[in-house]
Amino acid sequence: MNTYQHPSTYQDTHSKLIGYLLWIFGFTGAHRYYGKPVTGTIWFFTFGLLGIGWLIDLFLIPSMDREADLRFTAGPIEYSVAWILLTFLGVFGVHRMYQGKWISGLLYLVTGGVFFLGVLFDFWTLNTQVSVVNTISNRAAGR
């Protein structure tokens, strides 16, 4: 199956509003939820490249949003909701339960996000996880 999306079928997968709200905490790399885990980690350890990268990102959010919209698959699982759940309730596995991953969600619940290492892994892979779940859901629904 061809994964190319014609521009008329373009779907907004990520929210600019959420991007800008996360930008406020950008020195932690949170606004890099658009699928930029490497630079998000660098921002976390360098406080947004000492604030310079964080300030530049204020102007880059629209392009990061467009790139994420083209890169990831839209579907029943909302990226913004999954990211908010991961950011604030990750150690409880709520973001995994939201995706229908009940067993790993319950495992996170009783182990503190598998001793927080699972949460860190999910910060790197959440966009891909949601994209896979959405692709499977879309195929099952015949979309």
What does this structure look like?
With 143 residues, the chain is an all-alpha fold. It folds into two domains: 14-71, no CATH class; 75-143, no CATH class. Helix content is 67%, strand content 0%. Helix 4 packs antiparallel against helix 7 (117-140). It is flat. Residues 1-7 have low confidence and may be disordered.
Highlighted features:
143 residues, mainly alpha, 2 domains, 7 helices, disordered N terminus
Question: Helices and strands in order, then pairings?
Answer:
Blueprint: H1 16-23, H2 37-50, H3 52-71, H4 79-89, H5 94-98, H6 102-115, H7 117-140
Helix pairs in contact: 1-3, 2-3, 4-7
Quick take:
With 143 residues, the chain is an all-alpha fold. The protein is 67% helix and 0% strand.
**What is the number of beta strands?**
0
Report the end-to-end length measured between terminal Cα atoms. 12 Å
Instruction: Give helix and strand order, one letter per element, not per position.
Output: HHHHHHH
> How many structural domains are formed by the residues?
2
The proportion of residues forming helix, as a percent range, comes to: 55-70%
In round numbers, the mean pLDDT is 90
Biggest β-sheet description: none
Poorly predicted runs of 5 or more residues:
1-7
Given helix and strand content, the structural type is: mainly alpha
